[in-house]
């Protein structure tokens, strides 16, 4: 646990932000002083420098992200604003958000199998034949999904996903994002069981 001292209130006062010159309400609020661990102090120092150099700007009406939120810290530490760590962030095509997917999957036949044969019993051998983006099956948690329609909606991008076409991607899925509820996202893509 970092050694964080409790805040102490000093006699100093500061003014609260105004609302762009209109109906200015100036309140005197006590200035609170925190003794932070050196590592966090350095992080705040680099944020203050970035703000002074206009590397980051913040408008007072902007509630998110906060000035020293993890999003701002992460983007300052990243080599480019569009990357996370060393990995490029994928830009999805317009109308390919999670909400768009919810709509799309209910309005289209995303299973792409004969409904009379549902649910299928699929062997590893059969699974391995479905590797084309237009016929892309994966096994996840013992179930088989036809993810052809989902590919363009995947926040991690198409390329990373098609590498696992025709395969069991359970362990890699868990490695990247075990918090993602695939059974809910892919409910309409469920075509059968891995046997
Ligand atoms: C087939 C089922 C899959 C579904 C339903 C799915 C869904 C998702 C979702 C919802 C996110 C956003 C997560 C978040 O923001 O917290 C995501 C991100 C991501 N996924 Fe998947 N995924 C699947 C498979 C995979 C596989 C097999 C891989 C890797 C081989 C993968 C790699 C990634 C990566 C790298 C991201 C990160 C994107 C980022 O941080 O910008 N996904 N995926």
From TrEMBL:
SUPFAM superfamilies: Cytochrome b5-like heme/steroid binding domain. SMART domains: Cyt-b5. Residues 119-195 form the Cytochrome b5 heme-binding domain. Coiled coil: none annotated. Residues 7-21 have a biased composition (Polar residues). Gene3D superfamilies: Cytochrome b5-like heme/steroid binding domain. GO terms for molecular function: cytochrome-b5 reductase activity, acting on NAD(P)H; heme binding; metal ion binding. Residues 1-25 are annotated as: Disordered. Keywords: Heme, Iron, Metal-binding. Pfam families: Cyt-b5 (PF00173). One of its GO terms (cellular component) is cytoplasm. It comes from the Eukaryota. PANTHER family: CYTOCHROME B5 REDUCTASE 4, CYTOCHROME B5 REDUCTASE 4 FAMILY MEMBER. Belongs to the cytochrome b5 family. This is Cytochrome b5 heme-binding domain-containing protein. It comes from Pichia californica.
């Amino acid at each position: 646990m970092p050694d964080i001292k409790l805040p102490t209130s000093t006699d100093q006062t500061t003014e609260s932000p105004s609302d762009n010159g209109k109906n200015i309400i100036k309140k005197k609020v006590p200035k609170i002083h925190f003794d932070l661990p050196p590592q966090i102090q350095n992080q705040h120092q680099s944020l203050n420098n970035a703000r002074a150099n206009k590397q980051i700007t913040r408008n007072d009406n902007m509630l998110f992200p906060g000035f020293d939120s993890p999003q701002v810290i992460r983007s300052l530490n990243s080599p480019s604003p569009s990357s996370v760590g060393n990995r490029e962030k994928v830009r999805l095509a317009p109308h390919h958000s999670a909400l768009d997917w919810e709509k799309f999957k209910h309005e289209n036949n995303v299973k792409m199998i004969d409904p009379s044969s549902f649910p299928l019993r699929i062997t590893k051998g059969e699974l391995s034949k479905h590797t084309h983006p237009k016929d892309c099956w994966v096994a996840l948690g013992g179930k088989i999904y036809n993810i052809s329609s989902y590919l363009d909606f995947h926040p991690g991008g198409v390329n990373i996903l098609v590498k696992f076409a025709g395969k069991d991607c359970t362990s890699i899925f868990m490695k990247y994002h075990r918090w993602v509820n695939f059974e809910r996202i892919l409910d309409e893509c469920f075509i059968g069981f891995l046997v």
